[in-house]
Amino acid sequence: ALEIAQQEHGWLSAEVMQEVGEAMDLPPTGVASVASFYTMLYTQPVGEHVIQVCTNITCSLLGAEHIVDYIGRKLGIEVGQTTPDGKVTLLTVECLGSCGTAPMMQVDETYYESLTEEKIDRILVELA
């Protein structure tokens, strides 16, 4: 229900979560705790595209922090921010389950693995 609400509204505001809770006969705090647990649910406005960089141990050991810094410099934003044109939001997440191809990130619903600066440049051009 939260995914459907997010698809309709772009993100899960307190009002949207309250509506979901009322429809499912759940307390607002329960709905909010579920929404805040899952990284694919956004409780703040996000851009048209969301980049989630994995920062769990394997990705970190293989350069995730550099990847995050590189993307941030290329886009002119920091983690948690959205580009001024509203196109891209940059987030970090704990694990995307692709340790064998680290470092990796997810853009919207697509995985990008074994990242390099060159690969990131190509991906960012596609998002423009």
Can you offer a commentary on this structure?
The protein is of the alpha+beta class and 128 residues long. It contains six helices and four strands. Strands 2-1-3-4 form a four-stranded mixed sheet, covered by helices on one side. A hairpin with a 2-residue loop joins β3 and β4. The model has no long low-confidence stretch (mean pLDDT 95). The radius of gyration is 16 Å and the shape is globular. The longest helix is centred in the middle third of the chain and has 12 residues. α2 packs across α3.
For the biggest β-sheet, the strand order reads 2-1-3-4
The low-confidence parts are: none
Principal-axis shape = globular
Question: Span between N and C termini?
Answer: 30 Å
Number of helices: 6
Bin the strand percentage. Answer: 5-15%
Q: Helicity range of the residues? A: 40-55%
Tags for this model:
128 residues, alpha+beta, 4-stranded mixed β-sheet, 6 helices, 4 strands, 45% helix, globular
SSE order and pairing:
Layout: H1 2-9, H2 14-24, H3 28-37, E1 49-54, H4 57-61, H5 64-75, E2 88-93, E3 105-107, E4 110-112, H6 117-127
Parallel strand pairs: 1-2
Antiparallel strand pairs: 1-3, 3-4
Entry summary:
By secondary structure, the protein is of the alpha+beta class. Helix content is 45%, strand content 14%.
